[in-house]
Design a protein that fits this description.
single chain, mainly beta, Immunoglobulin-like, 4-stranded mixed β-sheet, 1 helix, 10 strands
């Protein structure tokens, strides 16, 4: 009888282990706004998907640090899905085309120059998301 009980327990344990399977990948939306990403930080794991949605009113392109990955040009209202890999850099950016400021030349004239503030940054965090606190 004990032998039969152990066999059932082992079969049940195997069934439960196989039934739970691996953790499913998650999909996260990242909105490209006019001057930022929302959310600015995405908590992800390998196998997850980031869905970039362009809501900026402009055509945009996003690239990972050192251009490890680059999206195609995304027209306003379009989206691009990126699969998260373990070796992906933890930052990405998009340059806001046409953002200029004025600089004064040595001769005292002003000229339009690309504004480094036209680059928006986002971040991937491979840790668990912080827990919400109830106050």
């Amino acid at each position: 009888m004990l032998k039969n009980y152990r066999a059932r327990a082992a079969a049940l344990a195997a069934l439960i282990t196989c039934a739970t399977g691996p953790v499913a990948a998650e999909s996260y939306e990242v909105m490209i706004m006019e001057y930022g990403f929302f959310p600015e930080v995405s908590y992800v794991q390998e196998g997850d998907q980031l869905i970039f949605i362009n809501m900026s009113g402009l055509t945009r392109r996003i690239e990972g640090r050192d251009a490890v990955w680059v999206t195609p040009d995304m027209a306003d209202g379009t989206q691009f899905t990126l699969n998260v890999a373990a070796d992906m850099p933890d930052t990405f950016k998009s340059y806001v085309e046409g953002v200029e400021s004025e600089a004064t030349t040595e001769g005292g004239d002003t000229e339009a120059v690309d504004d480094p503030n036209g680059t928006i940054l986002g971040k991937l965090n491979y840790s668990a998301a912080p827990e919400l606190q109830n106050n």
